Amino acid sequence: MPINNLYSILFKDIKNYNNTIFEIPNKKEISYNDLEKIINNIYINLMNKKVVPGDRICVQTNKCIEVIALYLACLKIGAVYIPLNSDYSLNELEYFIEDSKPKLFIMDKQNKYINNVSLNEITKLTLLKELTIYNKKYSENQIKTKVFNANNHDIAAILYTSGTTGKPKGAVLSHKNLSSNCLSLKKIWEFSSKDTLLHALPVYHVHGLFVAINCSILSGSKIIFLPKFEIETVIEYIPKATVMMGVPTFYNRLIEKKNLDKNLCKNMRVFISGSAPLTRETWNIFHRKTGHKILERYGMTETGMISSNPYLTEQRKAESVGWPLPDVKVRISEEKYNLKDNIGEIEVRGPNVFNGYWNRENKKDDFTNDDFFKTGDLGKIDKEGRIYIVGRQKDLIITGGLNVYPKEVEDRLNEINEIKESAVVGIPNKDFGETVIAIVVLEKNQNLEPEEIQNIITDKLAKFKVPKKYFFLNELPRNIMGKIQKNILRNKYKNMK
Ligand code: AMP
Predict the structure, then answer these.
(1) Distance between CA atoms of 285 and 488, rounded to whole angstroms?
(2) Could you read off the pLDDT of 146-166 as tens digits, one per residue?
(3) In Å, what is the CA distance from 351 to each residue of 70, 183, 306, 326, 444?
(4) pLDDT in tens, 159-195
(5) How far is the CA of 483 from the centre of ligand 1 (A)?
(6) First to last CA, the chain
(7) Are 177 and 262 members of one domain?
């Protein structure tokens, strides 16, 4: 078996192929054996379509077992898997096809672009279902499925970043990047074949695909595979699971449920959160209701997971994203944004870090001279070596030459009882460069005037940090991973005086 291909690494220690890998509500369970058969059918059909190692395969489908099998078949054959968000529009799909030049574009039958001529002209659209069919003519007697002999740098996947500024960029991830990351996570989170993971995340993103699926297969675990996060179904399945991975939105919704308690979570080993900041308040309420301290970790598309709180419950902390993973080096840039707190850009180097963006030769802007990736996140590291994220560099507000970290202001606002959540952004201002404004969501049936907020907050923050205007919304715009879309807010309020 080739040892560097992620596929061989994932399946190396599966002891019992009769064990279940996927449990899906109201459907037949899928064993590791069943999954292997689907993978091999897809492999043979891909071979039949002349897919060779290095070919890009773009994929836009619903969340289903077959698409996971497709991902694994691509690894096995050495093709480059490119999952795309199911919400992408035709224009965006055309861009991805143009940028990645895939051999195949795979969709479900229901995809509204399936018969689109313009897409068909660029590349060959293929139905996912068609790929899973057992092909007698090309059955294993004629085409043997064998694992592609990948080297460390061979590309396993390209994941396009969400690209809030400019066009999305394809992060090129090697077999080594992905395997090193899941091997570390399995170890530090103590994953085993006794585990059942509750999976309600999308599978076109690093979190739901590489963290959740790779970790589970590597450990021979079972996955409760939910099509999406639907609160009642999640509550129903919590008692059957030992691990849950989620974004903060999941936890914010869970704490609102009356039946979330210690008894419901008694079989759960660990609740993991990432992809967006988890507030101390949510962490505390969750702890009080369930007895569990949510384990927060930090990562991104370009790097996989970077750091994690420790598995040891007593050592977990709210608001920190923990320590770097084994073999991963994290530092704060020399250029500091705030000397007192030692805040700077988080830089990272390690076997998990990608090698650059697809079709972009120049790596200078993204990496330092000594090969650390510049994450674009602002943070600090405390005396114990724990990492704290303060926000995105591009969200930093500079008003009258002074730096305002939105998170600091948001934390103070969120402490006000009537406020459910808030987002602080900078909008253009002739005199100061930028002005601080706050967009506030109030708790249900609460009322609060801007002046009242101002009175409370003025005592807690230096004057230049205090928002000059308050706007009220029923909810903040978020993407599917729970990240607040500050670019939308900046745009919406940019002309407010
Ligand atoms: P993505 O590439 O979509 O996974 O987004 C990565 C970005 O999400 C990071 O650069 C951070 O800004 C943010 N992020 C991920 N995990 C956390 C976390 N635990 N706390 C705060 N921000 C996070």
Answers:
(1) 29
(2) 999 999 899 999 999 865 556
(3) 25, 11, 10, 10, 46
(4) 998 655 568 899 999 999 999 999 999 999 999 999 9
(5) 8
(6) 65
(7) no
Cα gap 314→267, rounded to integer Å:
19
* Residue 471 belongs to domain spanning: 396-493
Token pair recorded at residue 195: 């585990």
Give the chain's domain count: 3
206 lines ligand 1 (CB under 6 A): yes
Q: Closest Cα to atom 7, ligand 1: which residue?
A: 300
- 292 and 357 in a single domain? The answer is yes
One domain, residues 319 and 463: no
Pocket flag, ligand 1, residue 348 (CB < 6 Å): no
Among the ranges given (16-30, 226-240, 472-486), the one the predictor scored with the smallest mean pLDDT: 472-486
> Which CA distances in Å does 82 have to 64, 126, 206, 395?
16, 14, 11, 29
Q: How far apart are CA 206 and CA 213, in angstroms?
A: 10
Is 270 domain-assigned?
yes
Domain shared by 376 and 405, yes or no: no
**C-alpha span between 45 and 57 (Å, rounded):** 13
